[in-house]
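#help-structures
NK: newbie question, is this the right format to request a structure? protein is HlyD family efflux transporter periplasmic adaptor subunit
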Amino acid sequence: MRNIILSILGILLIVGSYFFAKHLINTKTKPKPVPAKVVKTVFIDTVLNKTIPIVIPANGSLIAKRRVELYSEVQGVFKSGSPLFKPGQEYRKGEALIRIDASEYYASVQSSKSNLYNSIAAIMPDLKLDFPEVFQKWQSYLNGFDLSNTTPKLPEMTSEKENYFITGRGIVSSYYSVKNLEQRLAKYNIRAPFSGILTQALATEGSLIRSGQKLGEFIDPSIYEMEVALSKTYASLLKVGETVVLNNLENTESYTGIVSRVNGSIDATTQTITAFIEVKNDNLKEGMYLEANLNAKEESEAIEIDRNLLLESQQIYVVKDSLLDVIDVKPVYFSETKVVLKNIPNGTIILKKAVPGAYAGMLVKPFQDNQDRKDKQ
């Protein structure tokens, strides 16, 4: 009996211990971990509003401002001459670029001029009898008529009868036929319209030239233009006469040009406006690729910061009492990497570099380099 009672007490003790331990586990409170306070170090800058120049970047290739594509309007054999018709050859204004053999055509012109002379000579007896008052001027015209020179202008007809008489003999029509032939004869010699250099030669001496055939290109190497396409948003900023700094791709040389022309229409396809920059320099060559920085205008009371510091809500982060905050700003110009802002009071402390995961109320500490510490000491 005693053993039974002891067994029952042992079982009750074990069951009670189990429920007591379970109660202790359920009532035990775990202390919540206290997060460590993280203070990020940030780069800051103090706002000082000033006048910011709006510089528009652009690029393009140089093209000679004065250039001529040479075409033949007549047919014949390309005559050899000096200097040779080769790329790189320089010519002075008025110097013959191309001479085409015109001996056959020249003979027909001389024949027409001779016929005109004979026609006038044939009416001289009638003029002396019927129009003695105009005989002398026509006689002077014949005396000055030289087949080796350009046909002189016909004497001015002073009366209606004289006009009818001369026109009725076919003198006027013969004269204009001769002048037409002389104009075409002049096209057998192509002369330099200005002093320049030959950049392309598509024909050689001795070859047969056909009417409408392209013969080459001739440019003035003393002045060039660069055509640049800019966004239509800059249309109101571009001004003719503005100075432009041009740089080559290696940034080893710079040149100064001016905006010579601005297109009055916007390209409907690309929504861009075309501007032309004129530049002079002995080191420039046609086809050179340059980069330009156009000074469109100046924005007063503004600052310039990196674009990644501007939030989508048109706000930027500022530092107030070691905490980040945001303020509204007014962007006035965007470049590829920078943005010009207004409406920021002087003395405002802003971020100089973007902070990953930044938010308003974030605890920060301004970065101080060794030089800053020395200045404070």
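mod (FA): yep, format's fine, and the tokens are attached above. The chain has five domains: 1-30, 42-52+300-376, 56-63+221-299, 66-101+188-219, 104-186.
NK: thank you!
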